[in-house]
Amino acid sequence: MRFYFLKLMLFSLVFGVFWSVSQEKTLAQQLSGSYQDYLNPGDLNNALNDLHKKFPKQTKLIKLASSAGNSSLQMPEIGPEAGLEKKSLPAILVVANMEGTVPVSSMAAIYLADYILNSGQGPKDLTWYVLPCGNPDAYTHYFETPLRIDPRNKKAHNDDMDDLTDEDGFNDLDGNGVITQMRVKDPEGIWIPVSEDPRMLRKADANKGEKGIYKLYSEGLDNDGDGKYNEDGAGGVNVGINFPHLFEPFTKTSGLWPGCTDESFQLIKFVFEHPEIAMTMNFGATNFCLQPPKGGRKAGVDMDKIKIPESMAEMFGADPNRTYSISEIIELVQPMVPAGMTVTESMVASFLGLGAVVNPLEKDLKFYKELSDQYKEYLKDKGLEAERLDPQSAKDGSFELWSYYHLGIPSFTMDFWTLPKVKEEKKEDSGITIEKLEKMSSEDFIALGEEKITIFLKESGAPDHFKAESVIKMVESGQVSPKQMAGMMKDMPKPKDEKEGDPKTKALLAYSDDQLGGKGFLDWTPFKHPGLGDVEIGGTVPFVNNTPPKEIMDSLFALQVPWVLELCKKLPRLSILQSEVKHQGAGVYELIIWVENGSYLPFPTAMGERNEQPAPAVIELDGKDISLLSGKKRTPINSIAGLKVKKLSWLIETEKGVNLNVKLSSVFAWGDEKQIKIGGVK
């Protein structure tokens, strides 16, 4: 009982408040499953089977794929159209644990499916697809001995390109059931202990006269005798980074090409076969709900400074010696295309070979930032205000980046637990935050003075060559504005205190010492290694930094999972807001229709509009004895911003009164239908 109380105290440290016992019990009574333990891949599928048996009419079980290790990737379809081949309602795709290294995310996905079916609080006009584990092969390591983290599935891959495959993996040398690290004193070592806590290591800084002491290896042997350790372990592909956007080939874990393994290929295929998917959600290590997607990647081209090749410039009437913005090029090209055809950014980018967009578009960041603020308020209302470590940044080739950049629909992510931040002694600070900097005028920034700006630059992790004096001159000359500076600061890694070591390791050590009796970090212990001689084995225990105690899972989910349903309420929803018929004389009428997006999120995202993906909505006129003098019977609607309307008009000729059926259809934003009387007016 005392142990359980300590675990609940941990929950309080992480989130700052206890969840009401009565509320928790009431919700737990509604759910089918118990969330007091982690389920292995087979038991996850059993839990899905149990839900399907309990709700056979509202669910359909889909076998999405088989892993390289022959685990089945089961995915329930939930909603009023479950099992129907043709869909009329939008859908939400939720995937979890795509790298197989975040056990709590798989449990959160099961909880979500359970919650939707049992609580009665889920939307009644949506379809849900919920994949609890996208990489079951990697996830099985959490339940095996020795315990280790490895995101690769069991697809064999010759990592070191020698004559053998999967021959040099981890070895539990000290027999403690955990794979950690080995540190070895070496003249060529680059690591030194942190003075504050020698358990931590940091890279030596030669510029400060520091010389490295240790080399670091993962725990194991040189099984193939090539002088390298654990460089070709069992398995090959990290499913979580095997998606097309910014896919990085020729690495040990990414795979040979996007979708080269069945787990990722079948998921990509499923998405393209289901255009009704209006939003994706990835439960894992990132959190777009808390922190909007980050930019800062170096693009192949600056969309505001494009040079048109000389071979094309004459055709466009452009100057090959100057640069153009993408909008200026669109203005040049538009008069050259057939009437009714609209030149888009994607057409220009493709024609000029400009490459892919690699940073979130500003229009999309606006809604991500607003929803992030709302999520923080949502957590605050529940008392969850304590500081936590930042979530990870999305990896190149990840599902969430592919979803946002390629599918053109909102892509959100959630992590459910991180280590609590270690409370630091209060130091002198600038009092400037990124948010404050964004709102400053140039004059306000300059008025701060060199001393305060120097402190701010250091706090923000600005490179050493960024001095306050030079930054002030840049602002004075108009080279950079405070808002632009804030954007750059957001993408800079936070500075590490060399005396204190890595903040994440420090947080883990504090958590291990305070809550786990030191079992989260194994002290460095001498060991006689057959190849390296005297080594020390120790370090972080796998999964400790991202896997909460099982006793608090239900509390974590009860507080955070309902936010997914809040996001669903913000999906674009199209309807016919108003119509008007004006008699123009001689049997001619003008029909005006206003189509509304009555919800917060845009139709589609700015990235979707740029990529012309997904499909547009269509408004269709159907009536007898009419002729269209202007406009079309089927009119595409490519975009409507959130809470905005779009006006469309037609000229219609008819000799007698007719009833015109107007149908607004969209595969992922609902739709509407209306009958309008036209003609018969004297």
Quick tags:
682 residues, alpha+beta, Aminopeptidase, six-stranded mixed sheet, 20 helices, globular
Explain what you see.
The structure is a single chain. With 682 residues, this protein is of the alpha+beta class. It folds into five domains: 2-142 and 240-295 and 361-418 and 549-568, Zn peptidases (Aminopeptidase), CATH 3.40.630; 158-234 and 503-540, no CATH class; 306-352, no CATH class; 434-490, no CATH class; 574-678, Immunoglobulins (Immunoglobulin-like, Sandwich). The protein is 29% helix and 20% strand. The chain contains 20 helices and 22 strands. Strands 1-2-4-3-9-12 form a six-stranded mixed beta sheet, sandwiched between helices. A four-stranded antiparallel beta sheet has the order 8-5-14-13. Helix 3 (41-54) packs parallel to helix 4. The radius of gyration is 29 Å and the shape is globular. The termini are far apart. 37% of the residues are buried. The model is unreliable at 1-25 and 160-168 (pLDDT under 50).
Structural class: alpha+beta
Q: Roughly how many Å apart are the termini? A: 85 Å
Mean pLDDT reading: 87
Low-confidence stretches: 1-25, 160-168
What is the number of strand segments?
A: 22
Domain count: 5
What does the overall shape look like?
globular
CATH hierarchy: architecture of the largest domain: 3-Layer(aba) Sandwich
Determine the fraction of residues in helical runs and give it as a percent range: 25-40%
Looking at CATH, which topology of the largest domain would you report? Aminopeptidase
Radius of gyration: 29 Å
Residues in β-strands, percent: 15-25%
CATH secondary-structure class of the largest domain: Alpha Beta
User: Tally the helices: what do you get?
Assistant: 20
